[in-house]
Amino acid sequence: MAVAAARMLADVPPITVTIGRILYHPEAIMLAARPADALMPVLEAATEATRQVTGNPGRSGSKLASWTPHVTIAYSTARQPASPIINALGMALPEREVKITAVSLVSQRGAERGWDWHELSSARWGTICTCCPTGGRRSLSPARGRLCRRPRAGPARRGS
Known about the structure:
It is built from 4 helices and 8 strands, in the order αββααβαβββββ. By secondary structure, it is of the alpha+beta class.
């Protein structure tokens, strides 16, 4: 799935999102990643890669309606009042821009609420690859037909 997603994301530049607004859920505290539509290429690549590998078309309908891009900062496994946490953190932290250049395929081991996730692979985009003629972008290695994993050595120089 990661290789299929990386193919689809090969020409996507790093995606800049803003984090800062705090989202509260009974099982987690998260920072919203905005604007959500900036990450739509990632959602579409992940959905299509899953469909290609599993044959499952997934859910139909508006993808943005049920999708909330976020960065989880804490999980909770205990029942507890939310007000002390909300009073301490508030509704937002100082906003920061971050660049997104990868999506990970993870395996969850054990119970759902154990959050024991292990990265199986990742699809990267918008980073530098000096071994492939891709205009400086890290992508599929034409010679090997798979994701290039050679060390990055800085920006590729055109004409060299």
